Amino acid sequence: MNVYIRACGIVSLVKCVSRKTRGRCVEQVYKKVVINMVNGLRDVEAKLMKGLLDLVILNYLRVSSMHGYQIIASIRRNFGVYFGPSTVYPLLNTLEAKGYIKSQWDLENDRPRKVYSLTPEGEKLLSFTESSLNHICQKLSTMTVNKVLLNSGVSKQLLPALKTAGKE
């Protein structure tokens, strides 16, 4: 017997041998589909984080100065993604070389630590990037609204009028 399962936009074909096992078979495949989807979403999140890691670090340093391990721990705690020292420290060195952050040795603790802080150049970059990301998100949401309106039967001629009405 063939059973089709649709979960979160994913369709799977399952072949069940007998009627006795059919319910359990469908349940197991459904769980597998959901687990695969969750793992896929984690992968997407990790890729997005890696692409925006420099901005995340700059944003942390906007709030307060931090040493490398604090940055690593904060990212893991807040985003659930682990970037190790081999990823974070070279990025910190690059940001420092570009003049977006500066470092200073803190010798007052048990062991010396290099503490990073945001420079005015880094603040400018962060502000520009935030406005760019907001613009991109706004465009994406407009595209989504347009798609929903067009799919629900709203004609293309009415769409500009709805957009301007929403801005007023």
For this entry, give a set of tags.
168 residues; alpha+beta; Arc Repressor Mutant, subunit A; 2 domains; three-stranded antiparallel sheet; two-stranded antiparallel ribbon; 6 helices; 65% helix; disordered N terminus
CATH homologous superfamily assignment of the largest domain:
Winged helix-like DNA-binding domain superfamily/Winged helix DNA-binding domain
Task: Please give the largest β-sheet.
Answer: 3 strands, antiparallel
Mean pLDDT: 77
Low-confidence stretches: 1-20
Q: How many distinct beta strands?
A: 5
Tell me the count of domains. Answer: 2
Helix content: 55-70%
Give the spatial strand order of the biggest sheet.
3-5-4
Kindly report how far apart the N and C termini lie.
57 Å
**Tally the helices: what do you get?**
6
CATH first level of the largest domain: which class? Mainly Alpha
Rg for CA atoms: 24 Å
What do you see in this structure?
This protein has 168 residues and is of the alpha+beta class. It folds into two domains: 2-44; 53-168, Winged helix-like DNA-binding domain superfamily/Winged helix DNA-binding domain (Arc Repressor Mutant, subunit A, Orthogonal Bundle). 65% of the residues lie in helices and 15% in strands. It has six helices and five strands; from the N terminus they run ββααβααββαα. It has helices spanning 19-51, 53-63, 68-79, 85-97, 120-151, 159-167, and strands spanning 2-7, 10-15, 66-67, 101-106, 113-118. The protein has a three-stranded antiparallel sheet. The N and C termini lie far apart (57 Å).
